[in-house]
Amino acid sequence: MASSVNPTVRRRRLGQELRKLRELKGMTAEEVAERLLVSQSKISRLENGRRSISQRDVRDLCSVYGVEDHRIVDSLMQMAKESRQQGWWHAFGDIPYSVYIGLETDAASLRVYEASLVPGLLQTPNYASAVTEGSWPEATVSDVERRVQVRMRRQERITDSDNPLRLWAVIDESALRRIVGSNAIMREQMEHLVEFSLRPHITVQVLPYAVGAHPGMYGKFSILEFHDPQDASTVYLEGITSDLYLEKPNDVQAYSVMYEHLRMQALNAEDSRRFILQVAEDWAAADNGS
């Protein structure tokens, strides 16, 4: 559930404000880096919210930008202080996609396209465990348990009765047909998908094989949108060793258009439920050996 102070979101907002101050000053990131005797990449990471920022960094940057209004400086310093607090996910140790979790925790809506797996927010514990074991062969038992616990904790956003995350998921048929764990686990996962798809704030659509070629064939992606207009919509692309976050309006628009094409090509919500129920029956039959 979203907390009153989300460090990831605070870093993003603070970075946006610092970028505005730099641009108003007419300086490049390289020029600022030279003045502060730091690398240009540090300035870029501070501005895009991917790096923790100290109050000292804020003070130094405000000095370079000639900010004389103490109220602005104090406000930015407070944001820096809040941005260094720890979110709930830090209690689980080193999570590679912690930046994404911070954004997801504060998002108002999420549109996700998945090509090979059931989306994490809709996974059962058994399916999540089997996915982790299969995709991370060197993981220990405790590693798997920790990842599953994080995934289940993330799901509080879609079960929160007061402020649920608006979730729209387009799932390729291959994600429903690929056996993960066992036939029984797949049957359970399909039934779970149908159950959650009945919630008013969750829409699940299946993109069947019969559609043929489609815009999502290059891979999965997510689009996050936020309540606060200051928080730019973000496209999230998950990688093996690093992730990519796209915030430029043209990038977000391109992926949004792509998502609309996927939604239009996919089965509607009701037909998708019937399709998933049939797949669940197929898994049940396979489990019974018939």
Automatic annotation (TrEMBL):
One Gene Ontology molecular-function label: DNA binding
Pfam family, one: HTH_31
Residue ranges of the TM segments: none
Gene3D superfamilies from the UniProt entry: lambda repressor-like DNA-binding domains
Domain HTH cro/C1-type: 18-73
Protein name, UniProt field: Transcriptional regulator
